[in-house]
Specification:
The protein is α/β, with parallel strands linked by helices. The protein has one domain: Rossmann fold (3-Layer(aba) Sandwich). It is built from 12 helices and 14 strands. The chain starts with a strand and ends with a helix. About 45% of the residues are buried. It is an enzyme of class 2 (transferase). Pfam families: CofD. Keywords: Magnesium, Transferase.
Length: about 300
């Protein structure tokens, strides 16, 4: 089982599929979800789904070979297109919005859409109730996609909040997967905006602590830097160092081990130091295998 958000988490999930097979369960961050163009877009669950179904575009997001005729048409009509969606990507978002408007759960909507792509593993949302990541910059409150896409993650970060948490809970499928897992891996994702929303869902952290399986986190830092995304400024806002030690601090009291490509003293848990760069399929599988072997050693 893997907790994932962003490209790093999705890449490791794809490696895990080669190692764990169809039993793999991914719990994805839904704090990035956005309603746009009449569609309900779930960037992190869809990113994981596209990677796991081997349908990810070479850009690292969206569906392979997608077209953008609808976005081009909206621009011709004078619509501000700040969130660019491929035509088939938009179709998935429109179908998801339709299912949710009809009273369906996000869990079931993700299952239907994953099935349409031939997905073997399961991608589950952290909550069926809506939770949104909001970044405050000065006197402005920006939904996460507005901050990341429209503003290009440029404004200073003064606060991060997750409206909707008070009404959220892990879906029963997530709790069952945690209880049945042989190993639980926190992917090399941004710990503040990709993993913290998952862990903040009421009951999620308690379920992870109660799990029989070891919980292992993978640091997103490779060669002292994050491969992609604004992890450093969010960790600076949170007051933790942008390195493996800071990752260990983010997950203190929750994880039983840490995987990183750098030496890190005083992390408080067993450390596996290994090359965590996942530049191709072979590297993704290797990292997944090493992480699972490390977790199994903690169990022993």
């Amino acid at each position: 089982m893997i907790l994932a958000g962003g490209t790093g988490g999705a890449k490791l999930a794809r490696g895990m599929l080669d190692v764990a097979g169809d039993d793999l369960v991914v719990v994805a961050n839904t704090g990035d979800d956005v309603e746009v163009y009449g569609a309900h877009v779930s960037p992190d669950p869809d990113l994981c789904t596209f990677w796991l179904a081997d349908r990810i575009d070479e850009r690292g997001w969206g569906l392979q070979g997608d077209t953008f005729a609808v976005m081009d048409g909206l621009r011709e009509l004078g619509v501000e297109v700040w969130f660019n969606l491929g035509d088939r990507d938009l179709a998935y978002g429109l179908r998801r919005a339709q299912l949710l408007a009809g009273g369906g759960r996000l869990t079931d909507a993700l299952a239907e859409l994953g099935g349409a792509l031939g997905l073997r593993a399961r991608v589950l949302p952290m909550s069926d109730a809506p939770v949104r990541t909001v970044v405050r910059s000065g006197d402005r409150e920006l939904a996460f996609q507005e901050f990341m896409v429209r503003e290009r993650a440029a404004p200073p970060i003064d606060d991060v909040s997750f409206p909707g948490l008070q009404d959220a809970a892990p879906p029963p499928e997530v709790l069952a997967a945690i209880a049945a897992a042989r190993a639980i891996v926190i992917g090399p994702s941004n710990p503040i905006i990709s993993i913290r929303p998952i862990l903040s869902v009421p009951g999620m952290a308690d379920a992870l602590r109660a799990a029989r399986a070891p919980v292992v986190a993978v640091s997103p830092f490779v060669g002292g830097r994050v491969v992609k995304g604004p992890t450093e400024p969010f960790m600076a806002w949170a007051g933790v160092a942008p390195d493996a030690g800071g990752i260990a601090e983010c997950y203190a009291g929750l994880v039983d081990g840490l995987v990183a490509d750098e030496r890190a003293a005083g992390v408080g848990v067993p450390l596996l130091q290994t090359d965590t760069l996942m530049a191709d399929a072979a590297a993704r599988t290797r990292v997944a295998r090493e992480v699972l072997r490390f977790a199994e050693g903690l169990t022993a």
